[in-house]
Amino acid sequence: MAIIVSVTTLGCKRRETAPPKPPEAELWLGGDVNLGDGGTGQLKAIAQIVQGAAGVVNLEGPVARNSPSRKFRLWNAPASLVELAAVNVRVAGIANNHAGDFGPNGPQQTASVLRERGILPAGGNAGPAVLNMSGITIAITAHDLTDGVPEGLASELLGARQQADILIATFHVTGPVSYLPRPELKHAADMAIAAGAKLVVAHGTHAIGPLERRGDTVIAWGLGNVAFACDCTSEEDAILLRVYVQKDKIAGVDVLPLRAGRNKRPAEPSTDANGVFDLLEAVGTSKLTRHGSFASL
């Protein structure tokens, strides 16, 4: 006699596991930083805002000690670099219109001192800075557009892209304060995107500018100031970007409104984040999703 036993299993489904999240590096990017003699705590509030992300800023003026002069000059005393390290600045752009304020050897000396302090210089003879984070290689370039688009920019950007998984291109511009990008910046940004940059960032006119998504590239047309030791700029509205980087893309961008530090007053979170977001959208920013004190792009 054959006995057939039928077993029916009800309600049992195969458990599906979510694919592992790709490795991700977190950066923050700010505009112009000038610390003078330092020691005034102008960056102390930045640490809480960026929460441990690795920082990238434009260091306005060389690393040097001030000396009496009738000429207006910007400088960052060697001791002031401790303040950059305290907010985890890993890359400092040194290509700007004040890089040579203490002579033609200033950029080379600045690059050398930054490296001694564990900060990678970017721009000029220092070339691109290359960060390795979470298994991701990130090349960060810095170029000064004060005299127009540099000759050889396209090849330099392509060379930097070939060294890394992701290229971030930063540009310094000068001219009247404006929320809209200057022609030379637009040209340079087009070249960076053609070279494969996934993030293009500008600073220098001291004003914030629109944020744009163009395909899979994000463009920040103006970050404004982070902090200036002198009272030589009146612009206070600024933004920081918190950027989530994966091997093949920028996975996310948070926009963090900032009240820039001026003279001896420290930088701090903006007390009118919505006003900053309204301004950004008014000048052509791609849609922002607001989350109170920050927004995502």
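Next protein, fold it too.
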Amino acid sequence: MGKQEKIIVVGAGLCGSLLGLRMAQLGYEVTLVERRPDLRKVEQAAGRSINLALSNRGFAALDLVGMKETALEIGIPMYGRMLHNTEGETYLSPYSGRKGRSIYSTSRTHLNQLLIDAASKQDKVSFLFDHTCTDIDFQKKRINVQDNESGAKQILEADYIFGTDGAGSVIRESMKQRGYIKQHDFQQLSHGYKELFFPALPGSEYATEKNALHIWPRKDFMLIALPNPGGSFTVTLFLAHEGEENSFEALSGPDKIEAFFKENFADAFEIMPNLQDLFATNPTSILGTIKCSPWLAENRVLIMGDAAHAMVPFYGQGMNAAFEDVLVFDKVLKDTDGDLEKAFANFESIRYKDAEAICDLSLDNFKEMQADTADPDFLRKRRIEMELEASEEVAYFSKYSLVTFQEDFSYAEALRIGRAQDKAILELLKENKLSEDMPIHEMHELIKKRTTEIL
């Protein structure tokens, strides 16, 4: 039997399209409102994609709606970080000591298209593309929308409204302006990003290792590259906005751009023939974290995904966290026997601490990726962790594995345990009490004891 409640989802990006699909599968009548045109029908502008790293939490949510295998087909497995030093030497740092574990480089647009397509095949789903939500009446549970092309306006009513309209959420800002959101924290990094590109070699060959996330860590800035189908890589430069040197401000002309890349990323420069054009054409974008609370207004309007907890991209968990929001909401709805009002009321109390934790972990990983990955003590710590994870004699998961591969651990648990483990190993290394040639059980017991003391 179909549900009686009508639902509006504002924002048909990754989170919204997955949520709309799931709610339709449960029998609800769903209208998705999206300010952009239908992604399946328009060419995408370059320069803002930042390839996504799809991992276990995201796959668990996709499995819920029957889309896991589809997502696997369009992704490229990455088994670790390929670190590039200034001399062009490389070192592969595996993501896990357990054989075969990987994250998947995935096109944001392609995955979104597939989710929209799956949702559109549901009888109870309708889309309003190229329509902007301009206002919301929280008491009457209705939104004002405007056709971006014609300017025509209309009012849509529903029993429940989800705001999944991203970091620049109209729903969140309306909640904030009308006093529903009491706490709102936006932290913008001094760094921004610019998207670049490695083209495929003849015959669709890859110019560098295909199955890795490439990082050029340079302490105060970095370059990363993720593989695409067809032999190319999406490349992203993370750099300070301002400063006399090593900043976007300082790279004021072709000569300075070329000199900067030759000095810091010589091996990457050699496989970027269109660097100058991309640098001039693609925008420089900001990076920031948004934390806010409450996520609920009038027990009938709820925000989730980036609208509720936008994060910097350095743990590769933004999409995974948003997808897990849908998974958690589905469980909360089941636990309340399908009572949407109770599910709306209970969701934040269950999810908030984990959203806050992954925002903090993402900021932690910014430092780790741009600086720590080039530090000898950090690399020693990772080798020890890989040895522990590879062993069948002990049960050990690094912080990265807890976040990325152990979805049974909440983000909050991963943060608490993972930070303590990191501190324990680094302390023991500095005290010369831990070494890579120790028996595995002795190594594990030392780390376990110190971690417990720290916790």
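About the second fold: The chain has 15 helices and 19 strands.
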